[in-house]
Amino acid sequence: MATQHSSQKMTESDAQQQQRPHIDMATSRDRLAGFAAGIASGATKLFVGHPFDTVKIRCQVEGGHGRFKGPLDCLINTVRQEGPRALYKGASIPLVGWAVMDAVQLGSLSNYRLLLQGNNKSHKLSHFEHGLAGLGAGWTVALVATPVELIKMRLQMQYASGAARKYKGPLDVARHLTRTYGTFGIWHGLPATMAQRSFFFLLWGSYDIYTEWFRTLRLSPAFPYLAKTGTTRALEDRRLSEKLINFLAGGMAANTFWCFCYPVDVVKNRFMTQGDNNPIPFRKMFGHVLRTEGVKGFFRGFVPTFIRAFPTNASAIFVWESTVRLIKNETHH
């Protein structure tokens, strides 16, 4: 009788344990992995994306002033007149800057997610909560991104070479900004950068949506090539690999981000690269662009940006997610 009672107690105890939600508490490695993997992501972005970025910035800032007929004309003329290396003008700052920016952005993104999860990795966040984590990461990285982008763009908009150059290099730009705007001159345009980075809510919210959607897909054995080669049985109910999902979702999320964010990005870049004598305030720059160029002024350089967004960010997010899994020693598909 006592044995039966003891067995019943054990059964009830097991049932209670099964009903309790699984708790997987975050470790120091979880908190630091995003920062370390972000360095690899930033280096990837520079290699893949900087030539596109140079064309984008030149098209945005030149506007309708007639220097270039479009993105392709900008690319051809830049290479013809300044050489292929001109596409990597200002790259020395992003080489360090993008590595630091992605370390800060993706590291803070990971930690904001953990904060919203209550430090329990097994707790699933909603799409909205992923967006909130992205928003926090965007505002955080704006502190690093502002000086990096400000110096980079001023160098990219320098068409002269040799002794005719206004700036000799990144440090010269930084000295000029400090002399002109004071001690915090390299953060000139911080509110504009924070406004643009607010759209990281859409970037990371949509990334979670696309990731979930891709995980529901299966490789179809009815695909003609697979049926012809006789591999249909091996592919029954086979899902996409996690690495492929990271790549595709990252590229699509980046394109979503730029579709909504681009007009704000144009205004931010115009504001940060304009002359230092009687500059137009950021809020008034929207009206200035509309009056001088119309609605199309807000979308100059959109094509190279949209094309650049997929391969650059897909590669960067793929590298980040893969590196995070490697650091955490997690198994992946």
Protein model, in words:
With 333 residues, the protein is mostly helical. The protein is built from twelve helices and no strands. The radius of gyration is 25 Å and the shape is globular. The chain starts with a helix and ends in a 5-residue tail after the last helix. The relative contact order is 0.14.
The percentage helix is: 55-70%
Structural class: mainly alpha
Average per-residue pLDDT, rounded, comes to 83
Main sheet overview: none
Order of helix and strand elements from N to C terminus:
HHHHHHHHHHHH
What Rg, in angstroms, do the CA atoms define? 25 Å
Count of beta strands: 0
Keywords:
mainly alpha; 333 residues; globular; 0% strand
Brief summary of the model shown:
The protein has helices at 2-19, 28-62, 71-82, 92-116, 127-156, 170-181, 190-197, 200-215, 224-229, 242-273, 282-293, 302-328.
Would you spell out the secondary-structure blueprint of this structure?
Layout: H1 2-19, H2 28-62, H3 71-82, H4 92-116, H5 127-156, H6 170-181, H7 190-197, H8 200-215, H9 224-229, H10 242-273, H11 282-293, H12 302-328
Helix pairs in contact: 2-3, 2-4, 2-12, 4-5, 5-7, 5-8, 7-10, 8-10, 10-11, 10-12
